[in-house]
Design goal:
The complex is a heterodimer of chains A (129) and B (208). Helices cover 37% and strands 26% of the residues of chain A. Chain A is an alpha+beta fold. With 208 residues, chain B is of the alpha/beta class. Classes of the chains: A alpha+beta (129), B alpha/beta (208).
Chain lengths: 129, 208
C-alpha cells in the first residue's frame, strides 16, 4: 500500500492576550488572513457566538470572491464542567466574564487543507485532505 | 432589555398574534421538508423545493399567515425557511450529484450568498426551530454556532432531530449534545411524530 507523505502543516498559535482587546472585525480579519495563508490557527480561547457568525459570513464573502478558497473548518474544545460542582461552575463563569473565555481552544483551518475536524468532548481530530 | 419588556407586556395583555418562526440548521437536514409538511397540513400548499443535492434552498423563503390549530389552540405563524448554514462551499461537491460544472459553480455562488442571508435574518426571528439530521454527528461547530447565536439574541429555540426513519438515526445523541434544550425526534418526510412536534412548538411559542 502506498502511503502519501504529509508535506507539512503550518500551525499558528494565537495567545488569548493577543486578541483580547480586538474588536469583532479585527479578530475575524486576523484569523482569516492567517487561514488564507494556508495556516491552521489555534486560538487560545473561543470566539463569542456573534463573532463565530461573523467569521462564517466573512468566509462566505471570500469564497464568493477568491477563486481557490473553499471556506474553513472550525472546532472548539472546552473544559467539560458537567460533573463539576456549583462552586467550580460559578468560578468558571465569573472568570469568563472578567477576562473572557480563555479556557477553550479554537481550531480554524482552510477547508482546502482540512477535510474534517472530528470532536469529542476532550479531543480534536484533524482529518487532512 | 426591549425584548424582555415586550415579553412582559405580552404575558399581561396576551400572546403575540403573528409569530415569526425561523427554520435554521445545516444543509440537507430537512428544514424545507418540515416547513413543507407544516404548510401542506395547514394551508394546502408547499413552501419550497427539496432535493438530495445540498443547498437546494439558496434564498430565504416565506409563508405568511400559517394558522395552526392544535388541540383547540390557534396560533398564526409567518414561516421563514432559511438556506442551510455551512463553513465551506466547494462546487466540486455538487458534481458528485451529476450537476454540470457551470451549474455547480452557479449553485456554489448562490449558496454562499444564501448562508450570509440566513445569518443576517437571525435578528428578525421571534422563535427558531433548529433542524438537525439525527443520523449525522450533532457535535458540529455550525450547530453550536447557530444555537449560540440564538441564545445570545434571547430567541427561544426548539431542536428537531429529523430523519428518525433512517437506520443510523440517533435522537439520544442529539439530546446529549444539547442537554439544555428540548429535542423532538421526527421524520418530516414520513410525517412521524408530527403531533409531538406541534406540542413542542406550542410550548416554545409561550416563551416568545
Amino acid at each position: 500500500m502506498k502511503i502519501k507523505k504529509l508535506k507539512g502543516l503550518s500551525l499558528h498559535i494565537i495567545p488569548f492576550a493577543e486578541v483580547k482587546n480586538l474588536g469583532i472585525s479585527e479578530r475575524v480579519k486576523k484569523i482569516l488572513n492567517l487561514v488564507l495563508g494556508n495556516r491552521v490557527v489555534i486560538l487560545h480561547g473561543r470566539l463569542r457566538a456573534e463573532e463565530e457568525a461573523r467569521l462564517i459570513e466573512d468566509t462566505m464573502a471570500l469564497v464568493d470572491h477568491l477563486k481557490n478558497f473553499k471556506g474553513i473548518e472550525l472546532a472548539v474544545i472546552e473544559p467539560d464542567l458537567k460533573k463539576e460542582g456549583v462552586f467550580t461552575k460559578m468560578k468558571y463563569q465569573m472568570a469568563k466574564r472578567l477576562v473572557g473565555d480563555s479556557s477553550a481552544i479554537t481550531v480554524i483551518g482552510p477547508a482546502s487543507l482540512i477535510k474534517e475536524i472530528k470532536r469529542d468532548p476532550k479531543r480534536l481530530e484533524l482529518l487532512l485532505r | 432589555m426591549i425584548k424582555i419588556l415586550k415579553r412582559l407586556f405580552r404575558s399581561i395583555f396576551g400572546g403575540k398574534k403573528n409569530v415569526k418562526l425561523g427554520f435554521y440548521g445545516p444543509p440537507n437536514a430537512g428544514k424545507t421538508s418540515l416547513a413543507n409538511k407544516i404548510c401542506k397540513d395547514w394551508t394546502g400548499e408547499y413552501m419550497g423545493e427539496v432535493s438530495k443535492v445540498p443547498h437546494e434552498t439558496r434564498h430565504v423563503q416565506f409563508k405568511e399567515k400559517v394558522e395552526i390549530d392544535y388541540k383547540g389552540k390557534k396560533l398564526t405563524f409567518k414561516m421563514v425557511d432559511t438556506p442551510g448554514i455551512a463553513t465551506k462551499i466547494d462546487y466540486e461537491d455538487f458534481l458528485k450529484y451529476g450537476l454540470k460544472k457551470k451549474d455547480a459553480k452557479k449553485r456554489a455562488k448562490e449558496a454562499t450568498q444564501g448562508i450570509i442571508e440566513s445569518i443576517q435574518w437571525l435578528d428578525d426571528m421571534d422563535a427558531v426551530v433548529v433542524v438537525l439530521d439525527s443520523s449525522e454527528n450533532p457535535f458540529s461547530q455550525v450547530n453550536i454556532t447557530i444555537i449560540g447565536n440564538l441564545v445570545a439574541r434571547k430567541i427561544p429555540v426548539l431542536i428537531v432531530a429529523n430523519k428518525i426513519d433512517l437506520k443510523k438515526a440517533n435522537v439520544k445523541k442529539v439530546e446529549s449534545a444539547f442537554p439544555d434544550y428540548e429535542v423532538v425526534g421526527i421524520s418530516a418526510r414520513e410525517g412521524t411524530n408530527i403531533d409531538g412536534f406541534y406540542e413542542s412548538l406550542f410550548k416554545l411559542v409561550k416563551k416568545v
